[in-house]
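Might you be able to consider the sequence and fold that I enclose below?
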Amino acid sequence: MNSKVIVPKDLLPSGRQKRQQFYERIIGFFLGFISLAAVAVLFGIASALVPPTIDFFQEVPFSEFFGSTNWYPLFEPPAFGVWPLVTGTLVIMAIAIVVAVPGGLAVSFYMNQYASDQVRRILKPVLEILAGVPTVVFGFFAINFVSPKIIRNIWPFGDVDFYNALSAGLVVGIMILPMMSTLAEDAMNSVPRSLVDGAYALGATRREVCTSVVFPAALSGIIAGVVISVSRAIGETTIVLLAAGASANFTFNPGEAMQTMASFIGFAGIGDQPTDSTGYRTIFAVGAFLFIITFTLNILSVRFVRRFREIYE
């Protein structure tokens, strides 16, 4: 015998509730579509890099690409040793991180624990304005002010080139500093207020609260901000092209001109290389190598964040 369940009318969804449920489904579908589109773009980038990279390595062996320190792919005779680009990328990235990470943490600590509401309302928009400055402006700032008026006056190790990695690294660090400080401050703001108030109640100073309570509790978010900043520094093109030059020198001396993987892609991509030439395919080979580096870096950061993540209820 079938029994029919009768639901009281006051428990049935009203017209407004039905509309809200419909809107929620539409929003969920839209967000899911955006997520799938992001994944599709990632696979699209990989598929665009793979065929030309395979063609490149059919002409240039791995032993030359990873075993040589000479990089002249657009000249005759060509040389395809990628290590000058790798060292240039590492040197400029290291200088930028030395500037951005301590500076960003200092700014985030100040805004989180030291600054008053009035100062925070002023400092936050200033950082957002700095983050919105075009990179080409930072590049001209580097070659017109930082390199000739600062680097050449303070560099203690002999002569310094007009185009040099130190100037590029410093300005890239200034560029990514607002991003680092914003991400770090967001992580610090997620720390429960009860932990901070409890530390103050036990007699801790602001410095002790920052270093012993806020920093450990927000470590996973801070590490995520560092990784994003590192990825941004690795992929910067315009500043490095203008400030560090286009000479692929295998050196760790930041006073010399250098070329990074990203700046080479930008430099060669606007050149006169035929699309079927080996020199043109070096753009895709270097791009694929850079893609693998950043992808690996992000995977390691996700594992690190999951390991040290603090969950508060």
Q: What stands out?
A: The mean pLDDT is 84.
